[in-house]
Amino acid sequence: MEELVEGLVEEILLHLPPGDPVSLLRTATVCRSWCRIMSAPGFRRRFGQRHRTAPMLGFLDNRKVAVQDDCFVGYVGYAVGFAPATPFRPRRSEHRDHRVLDSRHGRVLLTSMPWDPELEVWDPFTDELRELPEVPLPSPITWNAAVVCADYGACDHLVCRRGPFLVVFLDADGAKMRVHVYSSEAGAWSEPSYGPPSPEDGIEMVPSALVGNALCFLIDATNSILKYDLATRNMSVIHLPPNFVSDFKVLMTMGDGGLGFAMVERSTLWVCSMQTDPQGDDFWVPVRSIELGFDAGSINNDCVAFAPGVEVLFVGTEDGWFSIDLKSGRVRELVYCNAWTYALVPYMSFYTPDLHQYGVVPV
């Protein structure tokens, strides 16, 4: 009978909202048996399997901040902040003199400001900050980087936040683009892999898209994408449609797991998906258009973001930040961003609280 009751209780707990860790924490304090259920090793995985799509807990935002010292008054500095979209709050609310580059599988990739690539991987739940060794390059001028679970091909990414990870660093200062990969298990960078010729105008420092085993980076001004295969370490270039010309583009992982991109032309958002014909040739197909109610002329390249799984796009303009639901077409203004916010990176992860952190110990 006791096993039956505990099974029913666990089923109830698995239906609690994935974006509200506070409700899980409060539930754990009801009684010792409930706390024991939530602390079992398999609960976190079953919780993820039940909900499948990780919730968007909030946004990491690159912001300008006022700084005063002996030399400057009102000098503008930089910081990474966290804007919550759920009751979750990280232990640290701000990282001064940093910029967020990427977030994936519960991890956050930061770099120091200004632009030297001093990289760190941050866990907002535990506040663990892992400093990466210096990238084995002279100071690169144009580059981007991404963080990904080390078991990218086999993992379902439900409970891998505390596991090993990779950081992929792409630069384009030489004759060819090159990639170095950092492994948290090895604690070191790999030898470089070389790919196609470097673009004349460099690499966009906007979040990449993970498509299967490949990371895709947007290449500046050449209307193309650099695809890096994590398994083979090969690089290739994917061209965007020549008739889709816009200063505002963002790469996306589509609902079917394929590659997509969104762009704004005047006041219309276009969403395109890459398809493959029977001969194995890739081509782009427009799948959605949404009237935004504002003009693309006020959008900056950095002011774009996409939340995979929940299918929401974020756009920053001179008048404010807006969210665009690609399923419903609804456009909403974000009230927690202001003129000091110049880029957003959605933070998505499953979170079941560390009960010991809150003094809740199962018996």
From TrEMBL:
- Annotated F-box domain ranges read 6-44
Q: Which SUPFAM superfamilies match?
A: 3-carboxy-cis,cis-mucoante lactonizing enzyme, F-box domain
Pfam families recorded for this chain? Beta-prop_AT5G49610-like, F-box
InterPro entries membership: AT5G49610-like_b-prop, F-box-like_dom_sf, F-box_dom
Q: Which residues form the F-box protein AT5G49610-like beta-propeller domain?
A: 100-292
This protein is called what?
F-box domain-containing protein
Origin organism is: Miscanthus lutarioriparius
